[in-house]
TrEMBL record:
Keyword NAD: yes
Family classification: Belongs to the NAD(P)-dependent epimerase/dehydratase family.
Cofactor section: NAD(+)
Protein name: UDP-glucose 4-epimerase
Species, as recorded: Thalassospira permensis NBRC 106175
Organism lineage string: Bacteria, Pseudomonadati, Pseudomonadota, Alphaproteobacteria, Rhodospirillales
InterPro entries recorded: Epimerase_deHydtase, NAD(P)-bd_dom_sf, UDP_G4E
Length: 331
């Protein structure tokens, strides 16, 4: 069975990717420092290395021991808002951590990598849809830290013979439809899980960060892609790069092509939960782009990927079902 090293594999998206890899006949090997991930988010039969990507010795030991055929590199700090307060941590973990990983890969002759990049790379545009030909103009250090890694990987492909796809995620949402894993950040900062916490009274309602943006209802617009679809895109990307024989680098958006405003998402959360949790208006959150909607055409043409879930109500319903059956047990 081919081994795939998944850095950050115990996290929200990573744990869904591990399920998809197993279903597709791969053996995921997870490396995670558990700063945000959970050991019990992945099945006990998956080899697990408790380590940090900033630790080169741990990376070398992992490559020596498991000799993975490829890497899916997810380990990162992910909160765009937080990156406006602590930019150094984002460059340290996301940028230098990724450099460490690329060097370990080069040293151990593992040259295939699927990188988890982000829509935050595009920053503010007045476009209805974003495609991969647009220049990187991130609004925040989080997006810049990821853009730098894309640049490094492109150079490793051109000059060291790597093969890679950077998947630019739009807003991951939802949970495994069979409720095996889901979103469990602590502290939580993302819109949908925060709304669900508000619904069960574990927060005092939900604040909308900014109601005066240039959008139909004044709130920011995002493209919420189901995490199960996002995980499936990784397997497609992996198959694509392992099928290539020449050095190769490409960036691919993973989103639905449909936008939802913050207010629309909150109304859907109220509808799905059946709970009228309080919603109030607050100041804009620094570093937030107004609107991020994917043009997913390239994902379809290059990877033959299309989202299975396009109704945000269903995505939220899966998040809610997971929350009700799992997270609430530990309350
Ligand atoms: N929001 C609120 N109130 C809250 C929390 C969020 O109004 O309490 C708003 C934000 O201001 C933003 C939207 O909801 O307009 C979505 O915010 P999230 O924090 O859920 O997600 P972001 O769009 O900031 O970022 C997420 C991931 C990034 C990823 C990006 C891609 O955290 O890693 O999506 O679009 F890069």
């Amino acid at each position: 069975m081919e081994k795939i090293l998944v850095t950050g594999g115990a996290g929200y998206i990573g744990s869904h990717i591990c399920l998809k890899l197993q279903e597709s006949g791969y053996l995921p090997v997870v490396l995670d420092n558990l700063s945000n991930g959970h050991r019990d988010a992945i099945s006990g039969d998956i080899p697990f290395v408790h380590a940090d990507i900033r630790n080169r010795t741990a990376l070398d030991d992992t490559f020596k021991k498991f000799q993975p055929a490829a890497v899916i590199h997810m380990a990162a700090l992910i909160e765009a808002g937080l990156s406006m307060q602590e930019p150094a941590s984002f460059y340290e973990v996301n940028t230098t951590g990724s450099f460490n990983l690329l060097e370990a890969m080069r040293h151990h002759e593992c040259r295939q990598i699927v990188f988890s990049s982000t829509a935050a790379i595009y920053g503010n545009t007045n476009l209805d849809m974003l495609d991969e030909t647009l220049p990187a103009q991130p609004e925040n250090p989080y997006g810049r830290s990821k853009a730098m890694v894309e640049t490094m990987i492109a150079d490793y492909c051109a000059l060291y013979g790597f093969r890679s796809i950077a998947l630019r995620y739009f807003n991951a949402a939802g949970a495994d439809p069979s409720r095996r894993t889901g979103e469990r950040h602590d502290p939580e900062t993302h819109l949908i899980p925060l709304a669900l916490l508000a619904a069960v009274g574990r927060r005092d309602g939900l604040k909308i960060f900014g109601n005066d943006y240039d959008t139909p209802d004044g709130t920011c617009i995002r493209d919420y892609v189901h995490v199960d679809d996002l995980a499936a895109a990784h397997v497609r990307a992996l198959e694509h790069i392992t099928g290539e024989t020449k050095p190769f680098f490409d960036c691919v958006n993973i989103g639905t092509g449909k936008g939802c405003s913050v207010r629309e998402i909150l109304m859907l959360c109220r509808e799905v939960t059946g709970i009228e949790f309080p919603i109030s208006d607050a100041a804009r959150r620094p570093g937030d782009p107004v609107k991020l909607i994917a043009n997913p055409a390239k994902a379809n043409s290059l990877l033959n990927w299309k989202p299975k879930y396009t109704d945000p109500r269903e995505t939220i319903a899966h998040a809610w079902a997971y929350y009700c059956s799992n997270a609430r047990k530990s309350e």
